[in-house]
Every structure is written in C-alpha cells, then in structure tokens.
Amino acid sequence: xxxxxxxxxxxxxxxVSQATGINTFGVKVRLRGNDLHILCEGTECPQRWRTLSDLxxxxxxxxxxxxxxxxxxxxxxxxxxxxxxxxQRPKWCHRVYLNQIDKHLEQVQQGLLAxxxxxxxxxxxxxxxxxxxxxxxxxxxIARYLSETLSLLGVSVQVKIKLYKPKNSQPEENRLWxxxxxxxxxxxxxxxxxxxxxxxxxxxxxxxxxxxxxQVSGETAPDWLLRVDLTPPEVMLKEWARxxxxxxxxxxxxxxxxxxxxxxxxxxxxxxxxIFCTPAFDPLGTAxxxxxxxxxEAILPQLxxxxxxxxxxxxxxxxxxxxxxxxxxxxLALPAAKHPVFATLPLDLANTGDQxxxxxxxxxxxxxxxxxxxxxxxxxxxxxxxxxxLHIMCDAPVCPEREQVANKITQFIRQLKIxxxxxxxxxxxxxxxxxxxxxxxxxxxxxxxxxxxxxxxxAATSKYVNDLVTYETSEPILRPDLTTxxxxxxxxxxxxxxxxxxxxxxxxxxxxxxxxxxxxxxxEANRNVQGLKIALVWGALGILLTLQTDWLLGRIIARTTPSxxxxxxxxxSSGNKASLTSGTNQSQKTTVFTSTSKTKSPPNQSSVFNAxxxxxxxxxxPKNLAAAPLKEKATATAILxxxxxxxxxxxxxxxxxxxxxxxxxxxxxxxxxxxxxxxSSRALRGVxxxxxxxxxxxxxxxxxxxxxxxxxxxxAQVVDFVIRHVLEPSELPKIIIWADGARAxxxxxxxxxxxxxxxxAGYKQAFQKTPTNANSNDLPKNTVGSGEQKTNEEKxxxxxxxxxxxxxxxxxxxxxxxxxxxxxxxxxxxKQLLILDRNQTVGSQTQLTDxxxxxxxxxxxxxxxxxxPLSIRFNPARYYQKHSRVPGxxxxxxxSFQVEGEQDxxxxxxxxxxxxxxxxLVFVNMPLTGDYLDPVRRQYEQEFQEYMLPLATNxxxxxxxxxxxxxxxxxxxxxxxxxxxFGAYEVSKKLANDPMIPWPAK
Length: 1002
Description:
The chain has 1002 residues and is an alpha/beta fold. Helices cover 43% and strands 15% of the residues. It has 32 helices and 23 strands. It has a five-stranded parallel sheet, with helices on both faces. The two termini are 68 Å apart. Mean pLDDT is 78; it is low at 1-5, 119-124, 461-481, 521-527, 563-618, 770-798 and 839-859.
C-alpha cells in the first residue's frame, strides 16, 4: 500500500536525496522531539563516510528548520543510518550535533583518508559532548543535553533564563525555564525524576531552581508545571551535616580526603563521633596507613566549620582495612563542647517545637536513601504552625504517596509530644504546585471545632516563603509593603462579605416563595389565615399543572394512536397471563408491520425501496425457531426475597437473588430440585430448565424439577464456594449440570467476582457456620408452614393497601385523559429516547429497533427457574456497529491463560466433594460462534480440552464438549459467546437425549 508523506517530510526527503545522490525511494526521515532521523538505503549499503561528507556539507549551507513546519521545534541533532534494502537493522549509525558541524567534517575527512589508505588508525577531531557544554550554563546546550533523553519519548525541549526578584528585598536571581512540547500529554511522573536527575547532575551554578512546563502542541495553556530544586549536593550535605547527620558528615569528609586516597567511615556513639581513616584502595594489603597529621589537618577545619548539632567530640582512628586495632588515635573537641547552643540534640530541640529541627528529622525520615535525595532533590518538608494544629507539607518531583509518608510522620510527631500541638495535618503535592494532591489528619487530643478547617497555603520553597511558581506569561506582582497580618485581615473580610451576600440572597429567595417567614416576625394574629392562603395557592398551582400535563399527554396519545389493524398486534397488557412463544407471535408481528409499510408506499414504487424511501435491508426475514414458552419474570420477587433474607449479602447481587429464589423453591417443595444447573452467564442463558424438563419427559423422566443457578462472572472458585459452602449437602440434588467454558478455568486472570464474595459478610458467615450432613428428607417441616403463615399475614396487609390504591386509581381513571393509556405513554417515551440516542430517522428501522429494544428490556430478567431467556439474535453486521470486536489476545477473560492454579484447585475440590456425596457432575463446554473462536481463543480452547479429557475418567464425572456445535448458527446466540433462548432450547434437548447422563427417576 502506497503512503503519502506530509509536505514537510517530502521536502526533507528531496533535500537529503539531492545532497547525497541517493534516490528518494532510498531515503526515509522521521522527526522525534528535537531529533531528525535519516535512513539511507540501497541495493548496496551506502558508504558511511562518503554519505556523511555529502550530508554535512549540505547541512553547512542549509538551515534545516526552514524545511520543517512552523509548529515543529528546532532540530538539535541528526541521526544518520545506513543499511542495505531488505535488512532489518542498519549497518552503521552516526550522530551529528548541528552546533559542531565543522568538527564533524574533520572527523569525516579523517575517516575518508583512513578508508582510502585502508588504515585502521582512528583519528578525528574531538567532539565536545552536550553535557560538557551544558555544565557551563548555556541554555541552548542545556536544551540539547535534555533532548538526548526526552526526544526518545517524542518530547521537544526549549530552555530560557528569566530573572525574578524574591521577596525580603533580596537581589534578583536567575530562574531556569524548561518548556517541553509534545503531541500528547505525558504523565508528570514520567518526566519529573529523569529531568530532575539530569539537571542536578550538571551541578549548575547561579540557579536556585528550575521550572519545567509541559505543553501539548497546538494548545495555549500548559498541561502541568514542575519545580526542580537545583541546590548543589554539597550544600544539601552541609545542611544535614550541620544537624549532626553521620552519613552526610562521612560523605563530606570522604570528598575532602579523596585526593589523599583515604576512605572515611563514621559512627556516632552517645555524643562522640568516631571517624576511621583507611586506605581508599588496598586489594593486596600493601597500601600505607593514612598519615595522622595530614588527616587531622583536613578533618578538623571541616568539623569546626560544620559544628554538628549535639556532637561534643570526635575520635579519629588511622588503620588498615580489616585490622582490629588502629595504628593511631587522636581526640578532637568540637564547637558543641564550648557553645551550649550547639550541644542540644536535634530530637530534644524538636520536642520543644523548634521547626528547623523538626524539618530536618522529618526529611531524614522520609529520605532514607541519601544518594537518591542528592540525585532528585528528594522529599522536602514545609511546616506551618497554626493555632493548635501542625500543618506539614511534603513535596517532591513526583508527589509522595499518602501511604508512604502519612503514617511515618504522624507516628513521629506523636512521639515528640510538642507542647500546644493537639492535631496534625499532613499534605502531599508535586514540587511547584500550590494546592496539595491529598491530605491526612490526626487529632492527638480531643479538640473543640465549631467550623471546618481550611487548608493553609504553603510556599513553593522553604527559602522564599511567598514565592509561588506561576506560568511564564503571568509572573507574580509582588507587594513588599504588605504584611502577613494585612493579607490575612483582607482575606477574612472578603470571605465574610461573600458569606453575608450569599446568605442574604438565599434568604430573599426563600421568603419570596412564601414557604418561609422571618424567625422574629409575629405570627400570632394571622398565622392560620396566612398558612391557609399559601396552601391554597400552591395546591391550586399543583392541581392546574397536573391537569394540564394530563391533557397534553391525552392529546399526544390520541394523535399517535395507530389504526385498528396495527393496534391488533400491540403487546398484550400486563394483566394478560398468556405466555408468548417466539415462533408464531414473532412472525405475526413481522408480517403485519411489513404489510402496513407496503400499503403506505406509492403503487408505482419499486419493491427495492421501503415506505421511508430508503433501500430495504438485505437481511433475510427471521426464521421461526423453536423455544420453550416464556415464563413469568421473577426479578422483583428475587429482589424482595433477598432484601428480607436473614442471610448477609455476598456483595454479588445476582448470587443473593438466585440464592433467595432457590431457598424459596426449597421451602415450597420441601426437597431440592432433581437437577441443578450452575455456572457463569453462559449457564444462566444457555440451559433452559423448562425445555430440559420437557425433553426429559419424552425420554421417560417425567415431572423432573430443574433449577438454573447461573451467576454472571462465576468461575470455578465461585462454583466451588456455592456448592460446598453456601448450600448444605441436603439442599443439593444428585445430579449437577455445570455449563461453562475455558475462561472460567483461567487461573491467570483476576477473579473479580470471587474477590467481591470474599470481601462480603456472607462469605465470613459461610465459613463460621457448622456444616450439617442432614438428608434432604430431614428438612424442617415447619419451614413451609411458617412461610405460608407469614405470607398470609403479608397478603392481608397488602390486600388492605391494594384496596385503597385500587379505589384511588379508579377515581383517577374516570377523570384522567391519559391514565388508561399509561402503558402507551411509557412505550412512547422509551421510543423517543431511543431515537434521540441513536439519531435514526428511518421509519421502518425505528420500528424494528423499538420492537427489539422493548423485547430486550422486558427479557433482561430471570424467571422463577433462575433462567434468563433472551430472544435477541446475533447479527455480526449490526452487533459490531455498537460493540468493538475484541481479539483473543486482548480479551481479559483469556489474559495470561493457564488452567493450573487457583481455579484448578477449586475444580479438584468440587470433584472430591461430588464423589463423597455421590453426586453426578456433568460439565458441558458451551457452544461458541465462529466469530468468537479466533486463532488465539481456539488455541486456549484446545489447551482446555487437553486439560478436561483426562479428568473425564473420574467416577461420577462426565464431560461433554459442545463448543463448536453451532459455530455458524448465529440465530442461536445473543452475542458471540452467549446463547439466546433458542440456542438454550437446542442445548437442553441435546443434553436430555444424551444416553450417558444418569438422569434421576422421580
């Protein structure tokens, strides 16, 4: 298939072709971020140095950015590849920095000379890396340095330097702005830490921080902003070393003594710091012991400058690595021994409420990995003490997780017992954001609160208290003349005025409605008269609105009432109890609608067009398929029974309702059904109890009671739980039909249904109750009697209510114009909603859609046998217009498919239980359509077959495979993997005629 390149790529291809002499068919280009990739190929691989020489000379004379569109960011580097046509990987690749083309040309000339002389000597000019140039602080070099990583993600980079003036009358400082542009919205967590690491690795001087702005191409507003702290690692180490952090002190001393080839280890015992000096590299044990005088001269000035908090003295040891005894020892007195202000431990200072000490201890707690903190800036902590609450903000390039920091902070602050602090509020945000992403609160003691507590505002950094990161085009206007008290009073007044205005507006609205009066208004004189007037006014308005609505609905129904011929095929009223079969009624409805549309057509119209002037559908008329008569729906009864049941819920509504129907069946009959069908939705829709009972009667098994216990999403674990733990052995029949397929045995996917059950109260009670081994004949006989008595009492209560309701309905019906046609109004509203939703204006198609939708909505309910009959027929052409076609390798039901695991263990438990209870277990691999059985699913089905066939040798277990029985009979399916009532009828007949299934005799 021929593809057309965009104009900008066509111009680039032509330019490369003219520069190198390679045919345009052998040149391919791609722009990713700030990188231009050029692939040169031919029948023979293009010569590396000759191709590069031609291309570099062209780059010297051409501005590549002119060849691209205006929206494309600047190109910083070019990657050139060479390969022979037909090969997958290039033979050579060369990176070209566009700011160093002259040096690249020198290198290429050396390569050409080496090729001509066939010499293996390597030479060329020294190419300075972007990293070396970026360390000098050049913004263009920083952009090229960052693009080496971000261009691989399709992100282009631009760097600017802007001056800003911090508050507190400090001089202006440089701020680094990094603009990242891409065709998609990258997650901040994807770019935050890589950019932070690369920027901090440069150890830039003259910048306190950098702001990263991510923006989608074509949009004006930034997607997100991120602040990166550019404080040098040495400054961070000195901050922690000042508070007596042993690891930071050891790191600083190691850097000082590294030139002397001395390694340092430090340990703190009580208030003395023990420092061990050993050779930095001594694999053979021949290195000399560090010189005492040299080491002390280097260590002592550092410790005195640091003045570590709470450390009074230091002991320095000199020895070889591995020696038990040091060669020399010396003792040093530190500033804390002379100045009491340095002698207090940070923890003791924190107990008194010292905020810098608390910040250090919290940052040390949240950043256990010192290297990671130095690379990315780590998690920084900001404190705000407001009234009796301590507010703690944690920010980092990636927002710290609540579970990661909240519990640690609250436990630590609780141990401090800071005076005056009765509660803690912890917040988390991404560095540079003003508002927190999450918050967590804990009261250390009971607090009196009259109003909700607002989240305080935290600054972007701890250094500049009032400096908040904003967009590039909206730098903040600073007011150094305003104090904190003035700002707080201004905000308080604005909030008070807003609340007062909103309250007054709401009060006026309520008073105008005449439903409310002033609390201080005297109502003794005309209270009854005023209330009566208001009641009469609102009552009259309500009656008028009701009558007007009833009149309008009556007019609408009168206009939309069809002719008597069409009305004869309308659905029967709710009072009719006659069952509907699919064969006759469906064909009758189709015939009448078809004839009606023909009578409306002009006589000279071709039969190709229907009444709406559209071509008729090519779909053949639906066939008359056999099915069992539809039974009364039991959804309302199941919901009521489940709500009244004393059993706790299993967090799966259908399991609760099916169990309630099954328990009602046991209470009514006094014994379990003869056959129990169980499984997922494929069993719920795929085996019809009425059809199975009727087919078994023709085989001589008359009056067998069959119940369908199918549950949507049921796996082997769910079936095992229902059979062995939910139902008692006395409540189980002697034969169980398990209808399902391979995906119910997939141990690699997440079992959502069973997880919901495990988290329920019903699951816990099922394992707490004592299992009983009573026979089905030993069921309590008073259960039925008590149930009947309770039903009679409820019927008496309901009958009185129904009598009043019926009398009111009759009185309303005598004066209402729309009451008698309420079913038509409901149907009309449903049709109009469907038309609006699907945006269809074709008359015949609307009728067909409405009829099927009415049928589908009326049938989305189980009957009293637990069966879900669906009359929808699977039509691939229409089905895949509304539903996406999901291949097997993207189907979550087959995700990480494996039959071994927790589902297999549950199935083995069911087999053992069936054998111990002498229950015949029949597993039916249910039918699937040919559309559903793609190569991936066929392979999984084959694995499932190989798994089930060896198990079929177990006693009391029978396996039947119907998966490919009707792969082309779409009329038997409601969707690609579920049967409808016609397919369920055929499956039930096939099972009834199976001579190997031991059906019980009544």
